[in-house]
Amino acid sequence: FDGGIQQVEMLFRCNYLAIVGGGQNPKYPPNRVVIWNDVQKNSVIELSFATDVRAVRLRRDRIVVILDTMVKVFTFTQAPQQVHVFDTCNNPRGIGVLCPSSSNSLLAFPGVKIGSVQLVDLGNAEKSPAVIEAHENAITCISLNLDGTLLATASEKGTLIRIFNTATCLLENELRRGTGNAYIYCINFSPESSLLCLASDHGTIHIFNIADPKKNKQSSLAGANFLPKYFNSRWSFMKIQIPNGCQCMCAFGNDSNTVIAVCGDGNYHKFHFNEKGDSNREMSQNFLEMTDGGK
After folding, report:
1. Looking at residue 179, what is its pLDDT?
2. Residue 83 near residue 75, CB atoms below 8 Å
């Protein structure tokens, strides 16, 4: 492209990409979504809005556009039709997630009330959105597991991660990242939903066991009724320090005992870990150097 791009979203692993322009010399205006066919090397759909686009999510049958205070849903057709509009609180970071499974059309995004999350089944237009009162502070990160049965949330404090059952909207797990505030960049479930990893602006990755929470760390004073709830918190059983404390995004590898980190300094790291809390870096590569070299 001969201009700046600030957002790219791929439709599963196919040739369709949603692109939003950005930077000093944007390829497209920041208030426009372009659906790009990378086989034909041309745009096939363009949608323009009154305000800048904060994020785009794709399914085979839907285009989800996240704006500052609303979420708009369109049919994924040659002439897209708007089928839903949902109001949200102020959402400048474009927080919102579609279920990764092609057989589940669950969409999650911040609610109108600060700290709440709305759950919408795009496959059932008659069903009203469910609302989960997840946190007291503004939501900064949400994630759905592979089959859409679990929702993980974090607020701007970044100390607690809460996991909810999407069918009942009930809290299933509460996990503690730490005591000091942190911005959570991403939360991801392992493929079988037994583990959860997250990355924060402290340059660390935390890994929790959600299938068996007792395997996470806990204070030796847990269970004492006269002490604050904090002492009963479940802490991560594994904490990985990213080299140079770099900010990163993380996810589990094909093996659930590996976690991948893609960092802001252009480095890719692969770590192996075990339930005892031991870890080692198996691989490290600078992908920006590879790109600059024309490979």
Report:
1. 86
2. yes
Judge contact between 92 and 105, C-beta under 8 A. no
Instruction: Give pTM, 2 decimals.
Output: 0.90
The dihedrals phi and psi of 60, each to the nearest 5 degrees, come to -65, -25
- Rounded Cα–Cα distance for residues 290 and 201 (Å): 26
pLDDT at site 289: 64
Please tell me the predicted confidence (pLDDT) of residue 221: 54
Q: Which of 69, 54, 73 is nearest to 111 (CA)?
A: 69
- Which residue in the block uniquely carries the two structure tokens 């969409």? 107
Contact criterion met (CB below 8 Å) for 139 and 94: no
In whole angstroms, give the CA distance from residue 284 to residue 110: 35
pLDDT in tens, 182-219: 999 999 999 999 999 999 999 999 999 999 988 998 86
pLDDT score, position 254: 87
Distance CA(166)–CA(142), nearest Å, equals 12
DSSP string, 149-189: -EEEEEETT-SEEEEEETTT--EEEEEE--SS---EEEEEE
Share of the chain above pLDDT 90, in %: 77
pLDDT attached to residue 228: 54
pLDDT at 102: 79
Cα Rg, the chain, nearest whole Å: 20
CA–CA distance, 222 with 226 (Å, rounded to integer): 10
* Residue 217 DSSP label: B
- Determine contact, residues 113/101, Cβ cutoff 8 Å: no
Tokens 């041309």 correspond to: 42
Please give the Cα distance from 94 to 243 (Å, whole number): 28
Residue with tokens 């002492």: 231
Pairing of strands 195-200, 248-252: unpaired
CB atoms within 10 A of CB 254: 7
